[in-house]
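Task 17 of the worksheet. Students: predict the tertiary structure of the chain below and write it out as structure tokens. Keep your answer in the requested format; marks are given for formatting as well as content.
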Amino acid sequence: MSSRIPQDRWFLTWHNHGALLFMLLPAIVFSLTTSLTTFFPTPERTAISLDIYNRDLAMVRDTRVVSLSENTSGVEFTDVTKGIFGHTANIRPLKEVGKIKQLGLSFNYDLVSQEKLLQRYLMNWLSFSDDDATYQGRLLAFDEKHLFLQPDTLDNQIHVVERSKMTEMFYPGFLGDLYFRPTLRWEVEATKDFEKIPVEITYLTSGITWVCDYHGEMIGDDSLVLSANFTISNDLETTFSRAQVTLVVGKPHRSSDPEGTSGGDEISLPGKGGAASTSLAAPERLGELYRYYLPKPVDLAEFQTIQVPFFADKRIKIERRYFFPHLLGDQTVATQLKFDVGQARFGETPLPEGDIGIYRRSKAGDLLFTGQDFIPITPVGGSVDLTIGQASDISARRTRMAQNRPTRDTSEETWQIEVVNGRKEAVTVWAEQRVFGFYKIVKAEVEGKSVEPKTEESGILIFPISAPASSKSTLILTISYGF
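Model answer:
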């Protein structure tokens, strides 16, 4: 055993909580690559842009200037995201295209860590120290708690050492390529030396997304003043400075989707001097997608969330109704709002998906939150249906009154739906009834008067039940099913 620390070795220091501090002795000179290719320093970035989708996806276009030597050269691009889908990465020169031939492109994301270093040094010589001494040996194996060392190549002994007692480990140089940051490695062949050639890097990455946040203020019971913001979240350890950003509305098909991630906690407006304009310009249509351009560059820091105004103060007509879903034993009557996505208000662009909060002002002018729902992507000419809460002074009860088989090939069931209206004005509650197979409505009466159902979709009937002020009404419904 020896307590002397060699001056030409790389070492790591463990703290009590298990974190790693990487230190490099002054006398050491090393390369992180083993290729004979000449690699140049990380090129300077001159521009960056992001096309952000609302599905945890972004297209990055990163322009940098590089220098290349005649014949084989290599460039390593850091400051790329760790969420890259490696197979989508592409680098192309913007000048001297015919004089530069790409030989290879790789995305190196297997970043150095304690476990990876140990894995690389299996069956190789290393040393470590505790508080008293420094130990050396060949690393035969390791697990979460122990190292298994052969002290000498001629000695069959095995030393089992607890990893928790180690304070320093010494590795005699590098084995293979080690990367401390996500890196795109580009190898090319050039016909001559080139200085400051612009190249464009493109790739798809996860970790960046946007959602549309809608704000609706009720005006009476038949109008809504609607505003919206785009909320952009960067969940990556990468900062995008002065980035040109577009937001893509639509759902391109993907072979597989990564899980969504939540955005950061900080909300701020992009750029300097406050908010952008109160409405974005008309989007560009690209096939099935729509692309909104932010009016000025954005600073999007790591783990940051920003908001960009989409549109403001669109007053639209709404239909308000009370709805009793087909849930046995549940007396809840939901309050619903419906509005049409008309071209006069929203142009020719689909309404992006996102959450909407509904508010109403009190007599004193206070803005009160009354409910929230989700708007799916909705084309022009479509309609949006929202459930914003429970009608606390209206209730309903569904009871199956009878079930029988009038004939061998038919069955019948009779339902009673009672609506209690505690308000000082009459209301209509729309009651949902699920049906199946071959059916026939034998009877549908509210307080002795026949009512016709409204068909929302296949297998669903909706019956109107009118209830006078401070009173109740009952629907009696008999349905026959054939086999």
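Marker's comment: The helical segments are 114-120, 343-346. The radius of gyration is 34 Å.
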